[in-house]
Amino acid sequence: MASIPIKSLIDLEEQKKSALLVSNCLAEIAKIIKPGLTTFEIDKFAENYIKDFGAKLSFKNYRGFPFNICASVNDVVIHGFPTKIPIKEGDLVDIDIGAFLNGFHGDQAYTFVVGTVESEILDLVSRVKHSLYKGIEQCIEGNTIGDIGAAIQFYTETMYGYGVVTELTGHGLGRDLHEDPSVPNRGKKGKGKILLENMVLAIEPMINLGKKDIVLDRDGWTYRTKDKKPSVHFEHNVVVKKNKPVLLTDFKVIEDAEKKNSNLNSSYY
Ligand code: MG
After folding, report:
1. Cα 139 from Cα 187, distance rounded (Å)
2. Residue 109 CA, ligand 1 centroid: distance in Å
3. How far is the CA of 159 from the centre of ligand 1 (A)?
4. Which pLDDT belongs to residue 113?
5. Which of the residues 59, 234, 263, 264 has an alpha carbon 20 to 30 A from that of 256?
6. Sign (positive/negative) of CA torsion 4, 188, 167, 230?
7. 201 alpha carbon to ligand 1 midpoint, in Å?
8. Residue 1 has pLDDT above 70, yes or no
9. Domain locations in the chain?
10. In the CATH hierarchy, which fold is given to the domain comprising 9-259?
11. What are the tens digits of pLDDT across the range 118-137?
């Protein structure tokens, strides 16, 4: 197995640019998303935005993926195809974008709540976002990959009974879109690979309101919940540090835009 890449400080400066480009793109999407817009239109918007900064869309043609972004609505867990179906009131729209700039990838996902949803859905969204930060807190040198998964699993499955998707994981991120190690959203404290300073991890809890089981569509990409209940996905790019992890991606720009868009709802911890 390949060793886990350790980034130099210069690498991290470059990678931060890719990561923030994705965050800023998601913030622009947060301004325009509304019922009636299609995820296909969001795909084109993201393509134009990322290309305007001289970057490439990381997902396009990755292992044959045919679109620029992943758009995973409601019961779609991840890797959904953008479609020409209009977004409607009450949809959960997970937009996942990768950008490749100056040799490094940024990769971030954010679940938007379009219109009004039941409180159990809003709770799910808030708690999945919070679980991501529980995982991020573990990104300290000397901790393990299992510590990250254990923290996310405890906060979602143990505390609230949500289904933690097992088959799909976060990953290392840098010059390649998917680097070693994989970062499961469940795990055991103290188990798995040891984290070293300046590893970059894409941590991305994929958490289901119902059971954890998923099925793959015939398109070979789209994962859905087997029980057809909604799933929520958030993703940050995190640098392991000796004392306090550092985020390369930014949620604040997205949240600020989200709060100003009257078509969107979210609740924040
Ligand atoms: Mg990812």
Report:
1. 14
2. 8
3. 25
4. 98
5. 59
6. negative
7. 9
8. no
9. 9-259
10. Creatine Amidinohydrolase (3.90.230)
11. 999 999 999 999 999 999 99
